[in-house]
Design goal:
The protein is an alpha/beta fold. The chain contains 21 helices and 26 strands. Helices cover 29% and strands 18% of the residues.
């Protein structure tokens, strides 16, 4: 939770602003109350005052003068932002050895109410009514936009230019950024466009915090999906907080839901791992439902009620894809408690190198079908004859699941030369939910019909029937082998079948085995310097039966799907070397932006279809990015 602010700085968060043109300045330098004739009692009081010690005597008053109202000079002559000086300029080197009591002036400038102010800062302080990071003009609270010559929209951040953290982030000085974020002693939300450096900063900040919070379990990294967790070097938040894969809170009040979960028997070990957390780094926060974020916040608050609250660092971009179900995380009641109305915006571009490509990605992020976007689509469009050559060799990203299934079946049919492929059939069943409400009537499994069970498993990520063949390209849909670095979204090829139970053995290229893993553990069959082969037997997948509270539908199935194509949702957080994009049926804000930004090299980006009307951004998120204060 945010640290308490002093009385002097508390009023600086007031969001009420007035126009510069409406400001006037009171010239009171010569103004005094009108002089009155002294009465006898006044003379007596003056004589008594003369008897007081000198330090209690009032200051002499000058002669009377009228009160003058003087308008402020025009905006261009006022100089609201002070020029950088030796103490407010860019940080040259901030050592991690600095303690909170001996930090450079730049770090102190990032602390609320601590930064020293120059002449222009005094003006800002008078208007705000208290200290803050620095003087801020009212219109600088909004990220202005300008129209580029080619019609592209570019964000202009007036605050980031004067912010020490923003300057360091723009030049990739991640060590200094970590020092400044830590010096705030507050939680922070870090955002920016695709390839802006969010994942890089997360890894740097994790190492930085681990040096200061060195005990086991004090620094935790979580993410909403297996692929994003692997990229961030952590685990899924479902696993850390004890949620099921398809978890949806049962209680509307997040506090009550957190208390309900923590009261169950299986949360004993989960409570023990929540207690020591000092810093929680949450990646891809845009894909976390607001309801789930609220429950996580309340669980930590309950467990750590007698300790100092942990710091939250959320990373993500609300102009990319949101959660599959539920509202965006910024709508959670705890969002303002954790992050207030501020965030650190990363404005660099470290994934793409081509200037035109970079501009197109930036324009697509805000939903602008600019000339740069049009040029990119034209240059990357692929004709039919060339497409047929790469149809079964390059990963396809598609918006609709049914299109993914269709393409995968076509590729499998071509690989098997038209012969009927073998299939893995799922085994479905029922079990009691370990997180069910134990206070009410307990459910009876025999009363749940097969049709009700099938309805609960309709959206299960594991299919009831999986067609396959040797050398088929497959994608993992479970995090059961995460200790081997294999998680939901990992892609490989079937190279063999287990002689005992017929389970597929999958080879993953360009994969380095985590240290400490030996052959035979976790299904590991073979390995090389850059590849591994893993046996993947059937795994358990569960779904809540809404018609029978307290009951879970269970599916046992090989944790694979065909992998020639994937949904755009699953690709978020990934950097893909080469891909074919189908964009004409995109249906969600940020979907085109997410797909276009997955590939770093324009020469390896192939656009099969595109519709300008499908390129749009979330207007509510755009408005918040304009209103939030930059760190």
């Amino acid at each position: 939770m945010p640290a308490k602010r002093s009385a002097a700085s508390s009023s600086s968060e007031d969001s009420t602003c007035v126009s510069d043109d409406a400001l006037i300045e009171l010239d009171c330098s010569d103004a005094v109350p009108p002089r009155q004739a002294k009465s006898l009692s006044t003379t007596a009081r003056q004589a008594a005052a003369d008897a007081f010690p000198k330090r209690f005597k009032p200051s002499p008053v000058s002669s009377a003068a009228p009160l003058v109202l003087r308008a402020l000079p025009p905006e261009e002559t006022r100089g609201w932002q002070s020029t950088p000086s030796a103490t407010t300029g860019a940080v040259n080197s901030i050592s991690s050895r600095h303690s909170r009591h001996s930090v450079p002036p730049e770090v102190l400038h990032a602390l609320p109410g601590v930064a020293s102010r120059g002449p222009s800062d005094d003006v800002g302080a008078r208007r705000r009514g208290g200290g803050n990071d620095r003087a801020v003009r009212p219109d600088d609270r909004i990220a202005r936009r300008r129209r580029a010559p080619d019609g592209a929209t570019a964000a202009v951040d007036g605050l980031a230019e004067a912010s020490p953290i923003g300057r360091c982030a723009a030049t990739g000085r991640w060590g200094d950024v970590c020092e400044l974020l830590f010096a705030r002693i507050n939680s922070a939300f870090v955002s920016g466009g695709p390839g802006a450096g969010k994942s890089t900063l997360l890894r740097k900040l994790r190492s930085f915090l681990a040096e200061r919070y060195s005990a086991d379990g004090e620094v935790i990294v979580v993410a909403p999906t297996g692929t994003s967790a692997k990229t961030a070097g952590g685990m899924t938040y479902h696993s850390f907080f004890g949620f099921g894969r398809e978890y949806v809170p049962l209680r509307a009040d997040p506090r009550e839901e957190a208390e309900r979960l923590l009261s169950t028997d299986r949360y004993g070990p989960i409570k023990r791992r929540l207690r020591p957390v000092r810093a929680l780094l949450l990646d891809e926060v845009s894909m976390v439902p607001a309801a789930n974020l609220s429950v996580m916040f309340e669980m930590l608050s309950i467990i750590q009620r007698d300790a100092r609250p942990c710091l939250w660092f959320a990373f993500g971009d609300f102009l990319q894809l949101g959660p599959v179900k539920g509202e965006m995380a910024y709508k959670a009641p705890c969002w303002s408690i954790l992050f207030g109305g501020s965030f650190l915006e990363l404005t660099g571009t470290f994934r793409q190198r081509d200037p035109g490509f970079i501009q197109a990605v930036r324009d697509a992020r805000v939903g602008n079908h600019s000339r740069a976007v049009q040029k990119l689509v034209k240059e990357c469009s692929i004709p039919d004859d060339e497409y047929n050559k790469i149809k079964t060799t390059i990963l396809h990203l598609m918006p609709l699941h049914k299109a993914v299934v269709k393409h995968n079946r076509e590729c499998l049919s071509r690989l098997s030369s038209g012969a009927a492929p073998e299939v893995f059939r799922a085994v479905d069943g029922l079990q009691l939910d370990p997180d069910r409400d134990m206070s009410g009537t307990q459910p009876v499994l025999d009363k749940v019909s097969d049709r009700t069970r099938a309805a609960a498993l309709a959206d299960c990520v594991a299919p009831p029937v999986l067609a396959h063949c040797l050398h088929a390209r497959v994608m993992v849909i479970s995090n059961r082998s995460k200790d081997l670095g294999v998680c939901h979204g990992s892609i490989g090829f079937i190279v063999a079948y287990d002689e005992a139970d017929g389970s597929p053995v999958v080879r993953f290229d360009n994969h380095v085995l985590p240290p400490g893993i030996e052959r035979g553990s976790g299904g590991l069959r073979d390995m090389g310097d850059t590849w591994i082969e893993v046996a993947l037997p059937p795994a358990k997948f569960t779904a809540r039966v809404l018609a029978a509270p307290g009951v879970l539908a269970v599916r046992m199935q090989v944790p694979l799907v065909l992998g020639w194509a994937s949904t755009i949702h699953l690709s978020q957080s990934l950097s893909i070397s080469e891909a074919v994009l189908e964009l004409s049926e995109c249906f969600e804000a940020g979907m085109v932006n997410t797909a276009l930004s997955r590939v770093p090299d324009k020469a390896r980006l192939h656009i099969r279809s595109f519709s300008a009307g499908r390129l749009f951004a979330d207007q509510a998120a755009l408005k918040l990015y304009e209103e939030w204060r930059r760190l």
